[in-house]
């Protein structure tokens, strides 16, 4: 009964896809797993770089915290902390090659970044 219900729900093309998947389960799942590991390593790479960048931001209450402009050496952070040739943000399904533009893109979209910077201006040194 359940098999008939599923076959009606999937239709003729869905059944072909289902049978293909059932025949090649190990290969498909291996590819998905490897891609997942790739994404995790790319995200960890981005996290290491971003933590190094966060360490360059003066904390509130320090001498340099009252400056209107913050200088951040993004290229130095990438060179020192890069461990993988790709970076991925929190919800990225497609990682980007590690570059200053990619790191900036992910960094500027982070909530933590916006809270740390506040209303100060950021000057990225490349």
Please provide a written account of the structure.
With 126 residues, the protein is mainly α. The protein has one domain (2-125). Helix content is 61%, strand content 11%. The protein has five helices and four strands. It has helices at residues 2-23, 25-55, 74-81, 100-108, 111-117, and strands at residues 69-73, 86-87, 96-97, 121-125. The strands form two sheets. It has a two-stranded parallel ribbon. The protein has a two-stranded antiparallel sheet with strand order 2-3. A hairpin with an 8-residue loop joins β2 (86-87) and β3. α2 (25-55) packs across α3 (74-81). The longest helix has 31 residues, at 25-55. The protein starts with a helix and ends with a strand.
Task: For this entry, give a set of tags.
single chain; 126 residues; mainly alpha; 5 helices; 4 strands
Gist of the model:
With 126 residues, the protein is mostly helical. The chain is built from five helices and four strands.
Terminal residue distance = 64 Å
Coarse shape? elongated
Write the element-wise H/E pattern from the N-terminal end onward: HHEHEEHHE
Tally of contiguous helical segments: 5
Largest sheet, strands/sense/barrel: 2 strands, parallel
The radius of gyration computed from the alpha-carbon positions, rounded to a whole number of angstroms, is: 22 Å
Strand order of the largest sheet: 1-4
Poorly predicted spans: none
Please state the average pLDDT score. Answer: 88
Helix content: 55-70%
User: How many beta-strand runs?
Assistant: 4
Structural class: mainly alpha
Please give the domain count.
1
* Range of strand content: 5-15%
